[in-house]
Amino acid sequence: MEFIEDIEDLIQSQDITPNERYVNRKNVTVRARRITKAIDAKSCISTAHEKSILENVIPETQKVFLKTWGCAHNNSDSEYMAGQLESYGYCITQDKAEADLWLLNSCTVKNPSEDTFRNDIQTAAHLGKHVVLAGCVPQAAPKSEYLQELSIVGVHQIDRVAEVVEETLKGHSVRLLQTKKINGKKVAGPNLSLPKVRKNPLIEIIPINSGCLNACTYCKTKFARADLVSYLPEEIVRRAAHVFTEGVCEIWLTSEDTGTYGRDIGFSLPELLWKLIEVIPEGCMLRLGMTNPPYILEHLDEMAKILTHPKVYSFLHVPVQSGSDSVLADMKREYCREDFERIVDFLRSSVPGITIATDIICGFPTETETDFEDTMALYLERLLQKCTGYRLIWSRFAPNV
Q1: Angle at which helices 300-307 and 337-350 pack, to 10 degrees?
Q2: Residues 6+ apart with CB under 8 A from 217
Q3: Helices H, strands E: what count in the chain?
Q4: SS3 category, 365
Q5: CA–CA separation, 322 and 341 (whole Å)
Q6: Range of weakest confidence among 21-25, 36-40, 179-183, 374-378
Q7: Consecutive H or E run containing 276
């Protein structure tokens, strides 16, 4: 049994270097990773530097430092923003000190991520850097005091990041927070064919939908990503087929809840996965992102077949959050403990060697000792004893009381 702090840590713990993973692959060129030069905020000068205001911005002479917190969806957004900035002529640098502007892509799920995000904004101010904020924090709470007078590019507007960067370098404050629409209809996000700068050149993260169908009482992300909007299957498949021609060896599907994919357009996740499998070359792989229990229950038979396919990792992230039906009801999770147990038992019996990741929230405001014991019983009786290789992701809940 291995304890991991966060699902992204789990993915990274499995993500050995491209050289190690693909050492025996032919026709794969591995580029060296960029190394980030860290700057300690305490070492910054005590008085803030003056920002240099530019009347005319020449992209080829400006450098942008980009930092990302949070989920795979956020990382995909950052890769798209980096691709657009580079195509516009800006240089993406890992050196905070030499950058003219810091682009900070935030996560609102956990307090530590938001705290470091806030600290980096303060550090940038001390260094006299221009700042553009992105991600779920400014999208969900743009009126927060520490975000005032700063430029924001919303999660639905990342395809306009170059405009926001240019205006910010000129000393202007720009805020693009509107939901993107085409012909009056909401779209999931930027066109998937936009240029990207991948953090790992061998892995393509493809967002398949944005937002979700739930209204969990503890989750703030819904305020940022809003309701479910899915990409069309042909757009996703076209993107996947293209990136394999660029040397990508893995595609990761991501969203706030992959299990809900297609419900708004009359499609389903298994239907999409079978179409993707058709375009995955021999020796390449697909990894599926998180799905909540209610939306995987309907497709257990098909999902088991897909997860046993040689081109698909036998891995699934299914958050349970609590072993108490009472707490799950207070969380508005829309399933019960028995539903989760059914998913685990079925997949373990149908998919040999499957790895299942889950999340557990301890200390929910209405949780009693009995509720906690129910969660521990689920862990001890169901997960620990029956799930060999099971990964448990602990989430800490700190209510404001």
Answers
A1: 40
A2: 330, 331, 332
A3: 15, 17
A4: coil
A5: 12
A6: 36-40
A7: helix 269-279
Going through 208-333 in order, the beta strands assigned E by DSSP cover 209-210, 229-230, 250-254, 285-287, 315-317
Check whether 217 has a pLDDT greater than 50.
yes
Q: Minimum mean pLDDT among 48-52, 78-82, 187-191, 231-235: which range?
A: 48-52
> Residue 376: pLDDT band by 50, 70, 90 thresholds?
very high
Cα torsion 91, 97, 98, 99: sign: positive
Strands in 144-275 per DSSP E: 151-153, 175-176, 181-182, 185-186, 203-207, 209-210, 229-230, 250-254
**Backbone dihedral angles phi then psi of residue 396, each to the nearest 5 degrees:** -95, 130
Asked whether residue 31 carries a pLDDT value surpassing 80, the answer given is no
- C-alpha to C-alpha distance for 180 and 156, rounded to whole angstroms: 6
Owner of token pair 């806030």: 118
Q: How far is CA 159 from CA 82, 83, 180, 191, 239, in A?
A: 10, 10, 10, 8, 16
